[in-house]
Specification:
alpha+beta, 5-stranded mixed β-sheet, two-stranded antiparallel sheet, 6 helices
Length: 197
């Protein structure tokens, strides 16, 4: 059975930045519009770039390397939020006994090098991992940056990210506001009448 379009961990960071007078920044409002548009049946073409394709292609290889190093996990299965089951959920890259796995395979060397040398993680990925820790009820996440063009010692880097309850509570608050606004927009759009002469 097909699921209705929902807010996802990969996009939830867009809802966390507040505008001056509103709950959301313009980016957040645009994201809410996107979900509403999709729920009404509108189609938005998937981004099909070299970076996206590269990441998808390398993810399975990263998992193979991790398992070879002794990491024990299974592929994630879709998990809906208990609080917002019709509006929020996602599928993590991997699921261990006490962690979720988030794998990124950047196509550009600089992003990977900053992860390896500086422990740098994009804020959007931090929010994504906090969302998955909430959904799967895990205490930590393992962020993996993988670049098979380098020897494995430098090509695979793992950073542990702890669960942050304050961040998760704020996320829930913002999602609640986003869903309320999305439902208002849906009602308005569903009640639009065709113009008549």
């Amino acid at each position: 059975m097909d699921r209705k379009p929902i807010f996802s961990p990969s996009g939830v960071h867009k809802l966390l930045g507040k505008g001056k007078k509103e709950y959301f920044s313009q980016e957040g409002i645009s994201y809410i519009y996107e979900v509403v548009y999709r729920r009404l049946g509108g189609e938005i073409p998937d981004i099909n770039t070299f970076s996206v394709n590269w990441g998808k292609e390398q993810e399975q290889e990263a998992k193979k390397v991790l398992r070879g190093l002794g990491y024990e996990f299974v592929d994630g299965e879709f998990k809906a939020s208990v609080e917002f089951p019709d509006w929020f959920g996602g599928t993590c890259d991997g699921l261990g006994e006490d962690f979720i796995l988030e794998i990124k395979c950047p196509s550009t060397y600089l992003v990977h090098m900053k992860s390896v040398l500086d422990g740098e993680i994009n804020k959007a990925y931090i929010a994504q991992m906090q969302a998955y820790m909430w959904l799967y009820d895990k205490p930590r996440a393992l962020f993996v940056s993988f670049d098979p063009r380098l020897p494995h010692a430098a090509g695979l880097h793992v950073i542990e990210v702890p669960r942050e309850e304050d961040s998760i509570e704020f996320m829930k608050e913002q999602l609640g506001h986003a869903i309320e606004y999305a439902e208002e927009l849906l009602t308005r759009l569903e009640n639009v009448k065709l113009p008549t002469l």
